[in-house]
Amino acid sequence: MDEEITIIDTNTRNEKIKNFFIKNKNFIFIIFSVILFLLIGYYSFEELKKNNKIKLANQFNSISIDFKNDEKQKVIKKLTSIINKKDDTYSPLALYFLIDQNLIEDKNEVNKLFDIVINKISLENEIKNLIIYKKALYNSDFVDENELIKILKPIINSESVWKSHSLYLIGEYFYSKNEKQKAKEFFYQIISLSNANTDIKLDSQKRINRDLSE
Predict the structure, then answer these.
(1) CB of 88 within 8 A of CB of 122?
(2) Confidence of residue 44 (pLDDT cuts 50, 70, 90)
(3) Which of 40, 97, 131, 163 has the highest local Cβ count within 10 Å?
(4) Residue 152 phi/psi, 5° resolution?
């Protein structure tokens, strides 16, 4: 008897499932179609990203190899184009190449390119902080103290591994201006950091003992 009841329950359940699929076949078809479309779209997008990355890599390598033979403006145009692609790998590399080779004299133009890389590209936090630090380093010879601190503020207010580098840059900036008390304050901040770079911490202590001990 129990066996017969179990068979009946199973048949009833199967019939309900069958009826559900028959009744909702259009809806189920739409759902599966949407899922399939999303999967195809996702993998197509990833493949496109991969191909674009390879294309940018080839472009950047070609520029690096042919740099000495190409016209300056031509190189600038090509590298700027790569930066505007907003790629997380090759846009920063293109910017570094422009700066290292002193290709653009207009500092405002360079800062605009820095801002594209920093603000318009999805980067890992520490990579972004490194680029912010490089922007500050680039600007440190011609901006005032407020502008320098403003650039470095996102790093200074964080626990970034680049925090000690940033504080040291500001300390050296004030030291070069003969503002020794301000310089000392930033060097002391470095010494008190638990995650400060070992070499920078040592250099800060030396700077205090040797040049700021009065």
Answers:
(1) yes
(2) low
(3) 163
(4) -90, -5
Delimit the domains of the chain by residue range: 32-123, 136-214
What is the C-alpha end-to-end distance of the chain, expressed in Å? 102
Residue 109's pLDDT band, with cuts at 50, 70 and 90, is very high
Give the rounded distance of the alpha carbon of 6 from its chain centre: 61
Nearest Cα to 144, choosing from 118, 176, 99, 167?
176
- Write out the two tokens for 41: 């779209």
Query: Cβ atoms within 10 A of the Cβ of 66, count?
Result: 12
Cα separation, 87 vs 163, whole angstroms: 25
The pTM of the full predicted model, rounded to 2 decimals, is: 0.76
C-alpha 93, offset from chain centre: 12
Number of other CB atoms surrounding residue 114 within 10 Å: 22
Are the C-beta atoms of 152 and 132 separated by less than 8 Å?
yes
What is the C-alpha separation between 167 and 148, in angstroms, rounded? 11
Query: For residue 12, what pLDDT is reported?
Result: 65
d(CA 117, CA 90): 10
